[in-house]
Amino acid sequence: MKLRFENVTPECQTLVNDVRKKYFPELAQANIKVLFDLKKTSRKKRLVLGRIMSPNEFIRYLTIPEIDEGYDYVMVLDKVGWEVLPREDMVRIVRHELRHTYVDIEKDDRKQCYKLVDHDFQDFFEEVELNTDDPNWCSRAATLIEDVYDQRKEDAKENGTPKRGPGRPRIIK
């Protein structure tokens, strides 16, 4: 059975840890699980390069054997992006996703302490300032990743490889 998600490589985990340490010291104690998404994901007709979520109680419970109190955040990165983008673009994606985090130091309860925030606009003001050297990096990165997905789809058609597995058997009544 092929799953949609997989653990990131050690190199990717190191990059996430380095970005967190450099730009987000308030997240030093946060438990963040980072996964690769093996499937192309779009939202509002835009490719999703990464996303971050707060785990619900069920996911937190399931992750307790892996880490004592479960994860505070789950970050998901497009695997094709990791394979084809330069390191600087991956830093930008991770940094953007971590901008969605907020640590409420007033809360004693760990699960209430770590929250998510929305964009200032379509991005974050801090990110715009950090990306003045390449303000269109996101469009460039998304186009490259889309091209790779399109090429892989075309290659699969030419090789007669089914896009998906056989799926569930049909029950005929």
Shape: globular
The largest beta-sheet arranges its strands as 1-2-6-5
Main beta-sheet annotation: 4 strands, mixed
Helix content: 40-55%
CATH architecture: 2-Layer Sandwich
- The CATH homologous superfamily: Metalloproteases ("zincins"), catalytic domain
Strand content: 15-25%
Using only C-alpha atoms, the radius of gyration works out to: 18 Å
Can you describe what's shown?
The chain is of the alpha+beta class and 173 residues long. It has a single domain (5-159), classed as 2-Layer Sandwich (Zincin-like). The chain is 42% helix and 17% strand. The strands form three sheets. Strands 1-2-6-5 form a four-stranded mixed sheet. The protein has a two-stranded antiparallel ribbon with strand order 3-4. A two-stranded antiparallel ribbon has the order 7-8. A hairpin with a 2-residue loop joins strand 3 and strand 4. The two termini are 27 Å apart.
Topology of this protein?
Layout: E1 5-7, H1 10-23, E2 32-37, E3 42-43, E4 46-47, E5 50-53, H2 57-62, E6 73-78, H3 79-84, H4 87-99, E7 101-103, H5 110-113, E8 114-116, H6 125-130, H7 137-159
Parallel strand pairs: 2-6
Antiparallel strand pairs: 1-2, 3-4, 5-6, 7-8
Keywords:
alpha+beta; Zincin-like; 4-stranded mixed sheet; two-stranded antiparallel ribbon
In short:
The chain is α+β, with helices and mostly antiparallel strands and 173 residues long.
